[in-house]
Each structure stands twice: as C-alpha cells, then as structure tokens.
Amino acid sequence: KNQKLSKPMTTELQRRIAENKETGKSWLNLQGLHLTGNEPELLELTDSTWLTNIDFSNNDITNIAFVIPLFAMNNMYSIDLRNNWISDLSPLSSLSSSSEEYRITLWFNRNVIEDVAPLKGVKLDSLYLDDNRIKDISPLKDEEYCTFSVKNNLI
Fold first, then answer.
1. In this predicted model, what pLDDT tens digit does every residue of 93-141 receive, in sequence order?
2. Three-state SS for 65?
3. Can you say how many angstroms the Cα of residue 36 is from the centroid of all Cα atoms in its chain?
4. Taking the alpha carbons of 109, 78, 25, 28 in that order, is the dihedral positive or negative?
5. Considering the entire predicted model, what is its pTM?
6. Are strands 53-55 and 27-29 parallel, antiparallel or unpaired?
7. What is the DSSP letter of 125?
8. Backbone phi, psi, residue 9, to 5°
9. CB 150, CB 129: distance < 8 Å
10. DSSP state of 84
11. Are the C-beta atoms of residues 87 and 113 closer than 8 Å to each other?
12. What whole-number distance in Å separates Cα of residue 97 and Cα of residue 123?
C-alpha cells in the first residue's frame, strides 16, 4: 500500500523538477509531496543553478543530508524546511568547517528539533527554529544572524 502512495508522489516530484528546469523559475515549490529527504531526485537540484528558493515545507522529511549540496549553489538564499519531522541537524555540522559565509536563510519551524549544536559555526544569513523542542540555544551564542528566531520552544 505504501509503495502505491510513494510512487505517484515521486512522479509529482519529478514533474515539478522538470517543469522548473524548463521554466528556469528561481523558486521551486516541493511542498506537500510526502518527501522524506531520501529521494534520489533531490540530488539533481544542484544542477539547477538558477534556483534561489526551494520550499520543502509540509513533507515528511527526517533526513536533511540532501540539503548540504544546495549550500554550494551561488544563488541559493532560502531553504524552507518548515512542518516536517526533522530532529537531527548533524548533517549540517559539516558546513561549520568552511570559512565561507552562506547568505542562506534556513526555515526549520515546526519540526522536532532538540539539539542545535550541529549549527554552531555554520555561517547563515538567518535562522528560524520556532515551534520545536529546543531546550538550550547556548551553542549558537556566538553566531551572528540577520534574523534569529526560536519562539515557542522549551527554553
């Protein structure tokens, strides 16, 4: 039964990516496709160098490793991951060793994040972590953001 549900969603994912490649629009809407973050098509997004915004909100994403290559895209400035099931930010810790400043805004509102330590040293433009399960933001005390929001957490 689950396979029947996931196949049409993957087809819709492929359709939306293909349509975006044809039109060259800077914003790609991938909302509500029941994505988990493990779809191989997500790796193709790095070829879409014209993209500036990608909206992955309202999915079932738990694995965010696919986001890492998007940081290398020069024009990328907004990655929206609101309303998912993300708890583990550790894949992003690999970006902290870079001296590069990313002019990217990350939206992690309404997930199940508890630990923000993996974001320490990742130079972002803005970071939104509202409505999660965060108890301690001290790992981010030395970070500088244009906007930093942690409303409705356990702090």
1. 999 988 888 899 999 999 999 999 999 999 999 999 999 999 999 999 9
2. helix
3. 12
4. negative
5. 0.91
6. parallel
7. S
8. -65, -40
9. yes
10. S
11. yes
12. 10
